[in-house]
Amino acid sequence: MRSKFQKRSQKTGLAPGSLVHVGSQYTEKSRITIIRYNETFFEEKEISTIKDSHLEKDKKEITWLNIDGLQDIKVFEDIGELFGLHPLVLEDILNTDQRPKTEDYGDYIYLVLKNFYGQEGDNLLSDQVSIILGKDFIISFQERESGLCDSIKDKMSKNKGRIRKEGADYLAHAIIDNIVDNYFIVLENLEEKIEDLEDNLVKDPRQSTLQTIHLLKRELIVLRKSLWPLREAVSSLQRSDSFLINKSTVVYFKDIYDHTVAIIDTVETFRDMLSGMLDIYLSTISNRLNEVMKVLTIIATIFMPLTFIAGVYGMNFKYMPELEYRWGYFGVLGVMLIVALLMVRYFRKKKWI
User: What's the predicted TM-score (pTM) here?
Assistant: First the structure.
């Protein structure tokens, strides 16, 4: 297993002790936090290596091992050896382009999820979160310290809620539930942007409005690519017959599944709204262009007979009878004015203007 995992490290450009670009910062070392707890006991501490964890089997406490940062290969090697993780699982944890999924390896369940934690410019910021669910332990891997589990740790330290009264499967539910809740926050921000966009579209559609529509549609595509696999992953947990998931916890995974379906419905609604806004924008621009063309056409049409009259009397024939009239010039201008007024009246009668 060690040699195959080292090959994967070389393939991804990772080496023990190397600097790896994570997000917009360079980090040198993974942060490892270990929490042991049960209904009457809670202990949290930060350790430097897995060997410092002093993990023992058949203990009465639940163990939660959280690793922030995926650059320390030695940590993964030690975890894989200590917990007997499959080499493919370790490879998938390092490969941060995984789609959300659930895989049952018998003694443990491996989950991959996408956590959206903010926005930078026009791009949604997301991290891959990997979870190993065992009989009495949880191992979570995050690309960076995002504060995803802070609320869970706070509840555990104050013994609030059901976390310390339940098993490791309920802790896995709490982590997944936090990730799904972050989707709601992202959707709230998108909803505000869509409302502002709708106002701008009605008042004064511009080229920037079209760009905003495309940017929002791209964000929804990113969310959609994560949400559909997430629904399948949560559904697998809900329907799982693994001994690692208690029957009492299944109902909580069902609740997460319902939330995921609601989020997907909201994303689809937003996509339809943006598609409708795009059609409205194109129709508005087309109508505006048609109005301009109509005005120009009316002006050109009015001037056509006037140009004809001016062209006739602009000919240099010597024996044109009207050229000798004393009031001929004013008479022609009067005729041209009458023709123009009659055409304007006709256009108004036809409701063209």
Answer: 0.75
